[in-house]
């Protein structure tokens, strides 16, 4: 916490989640822990780059006032994401009933005789979690939360395609394996069928030879019997 005699801030670092080509806001809560009314003024070393709302005002005793600092859209990122910009928070006690319109630059001048409390803040850039760097320019997410939904969908789509390709490869391999097993089974069945046909043919041949031999024997016996009867 940044400590001051009149006003305190949560941090001496004014943090911005840096993104190219987009205005970025940073919150700066000011807390008055005293029993007096405190007038404040916020100044920056780079006024063209930042907009402070409100840049002057009055904080009631034991209360907090939120300041919104807006950084204008930037076309380039600084080297190593380092920023040299700074802010100066000045505060003085004012009488009750003072309004923001009564907080003039003269209140904070050395010639005013007022005791001016000062607190210096530095600007800190935080890179977005899904930042992608391309060449000299850094292409950063356009989501204020630091996550580029478009990039996220692209990543998820790539993962889905990869999973689909893996599953397709597995299916093709399984089909090829089953086809080979089917062909092998058909070949085995054909071999068995041929062997059965050969066995049937051999059996038929043996049965046919036996019948012919019996026929010859029967005919011979009949001939003997007839010859014997004729002799008698």
Can you put this structure into words, describing what you see?
By secondary structure, the chain is of the alpha+beta class. The protein is built from 1 helix and 11 strands. The strands form 3 sheets. It has a 5-stranded mixed β-sheet, with no helix packed on it. The longest helix has 83 residues, at 149-231. The chain is rod-shaped and about 175 Å long. The termini are far apart.
Name some characteristics of this structure.
alpha+beta; five-stranded mixed beta sheet; 1 helix; 36% helix; 30% strand
Summarize the structure in short:
With 232 residues, this protein is of the alpha+beta class. The protein contains one helix and eleven strands.
What is the chain-wise order of helices and strands? Answer: EEEEEEEEEEEH
Separation of the first and last Cα atoms: 150 Å
Beta-strand content bin: 25-35%
Q: Helix- and strand-based class?
A: alpha+beta
Distinct helical segment count? 1
Strand order of the largest sheet: 2-9-8-4-6
Mean pLDDT: 81
Which runs of at least 5 residues are low in confidence (pLDDT < 50)?
A: 132-147
Note the main sheet: 5 strands, mixed
Based on CA atoms alone, the radius of gyration comes out at 50 Å
The percentage helix is 25-40%
**Morphology call:** rod-shaped
Number of strands: 11
Helix/strand layout:
Blueprint: E1 7-9, E2 13-18, E3 24-32, E4 37-44, E5 50-53, E6 56-59, E7 63-71, E8 86-94, E9 117-127, E10 132-134, E11 137-139, H1 149-231
Parallel strand pairs: 2-9
Antiparallel strand pairs: 1-3, 3-7, 4-6, 4-8, 5-7, 8-9, 10-11
């Amino acid at each position: 916490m940044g400590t001051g005699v009149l006003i305190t801030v949560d941090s001496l670092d004014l943090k911005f989640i840096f993104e190219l080509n987009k205005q970025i806001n940073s919150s700066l809560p000011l807390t008055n822990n005293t029993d007096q009314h405190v007038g404040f003024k916020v100044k920056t070393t780079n006024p063209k780059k930042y907009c402070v709302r409100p840049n002057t005002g009055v904080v009631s005793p034991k209360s907090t006032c939120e300041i919104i600092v807006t950084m204008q859209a930037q076309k380039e990122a600084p080297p190593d994401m380092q920023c040299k910009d700074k802010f100066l928070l000045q505060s003085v006690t004012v009488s009750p009933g003072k309004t923001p319109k009564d907080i003039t630059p003269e209140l904070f001048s050395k010639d005013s005789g007022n005791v001016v409390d000062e607190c210096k803040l530095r600007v800190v850039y935080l890179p977005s979690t899904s930042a992608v760097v391309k060449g000299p320019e850094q292409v950063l997410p356009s989501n204020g939360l630091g996550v580029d939904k478009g990039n996220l969908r692209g990543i998820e789509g790539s993962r889905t395609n990869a999973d689909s390709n893996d599953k397709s490869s597995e299916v093709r391999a399984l089909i090829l394996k089953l086809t080979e097993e089917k062909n092998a089974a058909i070949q085995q069945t054909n071999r068995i069928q041929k062997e059965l046909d050969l066995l049937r043919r051999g059996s038929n041949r043996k049965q046919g030879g036996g019948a012919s031999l019996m026929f010859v024997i029967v005919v011979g016996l009949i001939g003997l019997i007839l010859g014997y009867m004729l002799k008698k």
